[in-house]
Amino acid sequence: MPIPTAPPTEPGVIQVHRRPPAWTIPLGIVYIALGALAFLMSITQLITTRWSMTLMRNFPGTQGSLATFEKYALETTVSQAMAMVCGLLVFVAGIFVILKRRRAVPLLMVWAVLKIVTAIGTAWLSGTAQQAQMEMTMAQISAQNTGRGPPPGAMNAIFSLTMVVSVFFTLAWLAALPIFTLIWFRLRGVREYVAGWKR
């Protein structure tokens, strides 16, 4: 029913039908796509990590990298397992958003908090592993330095800056959608709209 443009000529209640918000389908698709991608990537990373460690044990000259892998093997496995859980949660929640089910919101809240925790852990793990790799590389450079190329101090500064930037962007990328989700579903208009959904 169109919005009236002139005063009514007959007594009665003026009814204005507003179109429902159109964000549910695109946002739900984003959740589903990212959830499926995160789940599949986590499984792939779990497999490739184990496979890479097996290969390194059989090749000489990879002991340094193997030591880094083994040192953080538990943390890496936990991080990838949490990423799998997060992917599954947001995938299911995305379906509920498209179907306009209220149960999508608590699932998304749990996912958002867990994803932020996972993002912090992943960023920390990435930075720590990069630092260990950097220290190993710098030790090799110092041992083999013949006076050519940049000195180890300059290389150390470059590696440190690269590591900080990498950790920052990793954390920002992984936490962006969860933070948006926590804010979006706390907005008054969104809460009122979701309250009318089926359970």
Strand % is under 5%
**Count of helical stretches:** 6
**Sheet with the most strands, sense and barrel status:** none
Order of helices and strands: HHHHHH
Termini separation (Å)? 28 Å
- Form type: elongated
In the predicted model, the low-confidence regions spanning at least 5 consecutive residues are none
How many E strands? 0
| Average pLDDT for all residues | 81
Percentage of residues in helical conformation: over 70%
How many whole angstroms does the radius of gyration measure? Answer: 25 Å
The class by helix and strand makeup works out as mainly alpha
Number of domains: 1
Essential attributes:
199 residues, elongated, mainly alpha
List the helices and strands and how they pair.
Blueprint: H1 24-57, H2 63-71, H3 73-99, H4 104-144, H5 152-184, H6 188-195
Helix pairs in contact: 1-2, 1-3, 2-4, 3-4, 4-5
Walkthrough of the structure:
The chain is built from six helices and no strands. The chain has 199 residues and is mostly helical. It has one domain (24-141, 152-195). Helix 2 (63-71) runs antiparallel to helix 4 (104-144). The two termini are 28 Å apart. The mean pLDDT is 81.
